[in-house]
Amino acid sequence: MRVDVVLGLQWGDEGKGKIVDALAERYEVVARFQGGPNAGHTLYHHGQKVVLHQVPAGIFHEGVRCLIGDGVVIDPEILVQEVEGLSRMGVGVEERLYLGRGVHLILPVHRWLEAVSQEADKIGTTRRGIGPAYADRYARRGIAVADLEKPDYRQRILDLTAYHQKQFPGAPPVELSDRFWEALENLRRLRWVSTYEWLRQHRRILAEGSQGTLLDVFAGSYPYVTSSHTTVAGVCAGLLVAPQEIGQVWGVVKAYATRVGAGPFPTEIAGELAIWLQERGNERGSTTGRLRRCGWLDLPLLKYAITINGVTALIITKGDILAGLPSVKVRIGGSDDAPLYEELPGWKSTSDPNYEAFLRWIEAQIGVPVWAISTGPHRQDWQIRRKDLLVEKT
Ligand code: GDP
Predict the structure, then answer these.
(1) How many contiguous H segments (helices) and E segments (strands) does the chain have?
(2) pLDDT tens profile 107-143
(3) The pTM is what?
(4) 70 included as an active-site residue
(5) Going by CA atoms, what residue is nearest to atom 24 of ligand 1?
(6) From ligand 1's centre to the CA of 13, what distance in Å?
(7) For the segment 53-71, what is each residue's pLDDT rounded down to a tens digit?
(8) Which helix (DSSP H) or strand (DSSP E) does residue 385 occupy?
(9) Beta carbons within 8 Å of 376's beta carbon, 6+ residues apart
(10) Quick check: CB of 18 below 6 Å from ligand 1?
């Protein structure tokens, strides 16, 4: 068994979903290992835009099975909706999607906690209850998919709801709607598996990251982080695999940088250029619709992300968005308050020699090859740039 990994090296939204979709046909399984429906992987299927929140981005390939691995937390209502939406599109999701028995549930009370506690506002979370669901998981009172087989699961959900409600006596009560209970029942239509045993029946697995390294709960700019491990360590923990079973680690990087929500962003751009990038790059959160803060590529942070993930090759996305600028900046050092930049010549398109020069310059700076580039939002808009690199280990 070998597990290759696609993960983001910035603050998420690097274009991982599209890359996973492009790479998926080389694999038997595509597996999500962390996060919840805060992910919003945008891709195009037969020209139709699809945003996947919980279903892995390999789902559009008939020969590929998809796993929601144990490290993930799911919102049953959102998952059931997503499965129904994909089925309506003719995607054979019920035959191809597998759910780890150790996956934990986001309950209505978790969303409610984000609404009443105002913590979400400070951090700028997606308010989907993901943080509280992970908090309950770590506090050992969370509810896993496998618990739904036990006779007392309804009572446990009611007890957990009451437990949290007690902390906010004046707040409106949590609504446990029929739709929620139905969604729990509908989860039974999916195939529940032991993540450990099921993965071991397959040889070639692609682990799909969500968010980005700089949002990792340990490695990121705490407390402005997500609630899970977005790094390669999260693959081991969330899919129950050993470090030596990890093969390629593809680091996906945008040719510039974006960040949604609060937290430090040393290379942030203000003013007209930021608005231009937001519009041209469609830098609006796929889950929340919020505008993303935009900035220049930050090499010191990129080196950090490459190191802690053991990245073997980079995939650079969205260079096409910067096309037309007379020059682009990249942070090479300085401090977070006074970053030091290198200014490089701009490019007219991603086939312009100046873009190739930019990619070579990055390779020289960080010592990791840029294996491929993505040049647009569609599956076919990408090129393997370093065919000389053997990336298929057997
Ligand atoms: P993810 O969460 O990392 O998958 O990223 P998102 O889906 O949130 O954001 C990436 C956005 O950029 C999506 O709308 C993609 O369709 C789009 N995209 C991905 N790669 C490229 C690219 O190379 N060029 C352009 N123009 N758009 C891209």
Answers:
(1) 14, 19
(2) 999 999 999 987 767 777 778 999 999 999 999 999 9
(3) 0.95
(4) no
(5) 376
(6) 7
(7) 999 999 999 999 999 999 9
(8) none
(9) 320
(10) yes
